[in-house]
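=== Discrete structure encoding ===
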Amino acid sequence: MSGVNFLFDGERLNLFFFPKALQPLGDVFGEDYVFAARCPAERPCDGEWSNKKADGRPIVLVSALTCYVRGPDYFKMCIEGLKNFPWHIILLIGDSIDPAALGPLPPNCEVDQRMPLVKILPHVSLLVCMGGIITTSEAMYYGVPLLVTSHGFKELEFQADNLDALGIGIHQKRTP
């Protein structure tokens, strides 16, 4: 590698594993940048996921960016917005949130803390998320439509608006 700062010094060939359309100002990169897109890896060590609890209903998966969501409020907002629809709702909350903090769940709702997103996505009819590039790329790979909320985080507005403009998802803006 030439130069000390390998993160910002471009090489003759630079690979990105995200679609160019998802990169902020992706059109300014030259021919020495290749946007190969993401291919979710097979991960047999994670086990398999089953949609038995859905009882034939369409599945809505709710996921968040762990670097932004540190408590249950985002998931509570999603539960409130989705609970009256005839869907099965899966909240992928990770290990940082105690499921009890969500309170009583509607009968059409379940919590999963450990199953990777890529194991559930092939079974999903809609993904509600915050528009992270990895999450978005994996949803695109499986052809899952997106409902994106930036949950009041200004730095996520660009990505959510970009996904809306590309026709990949709908940006549901948070109202005060």
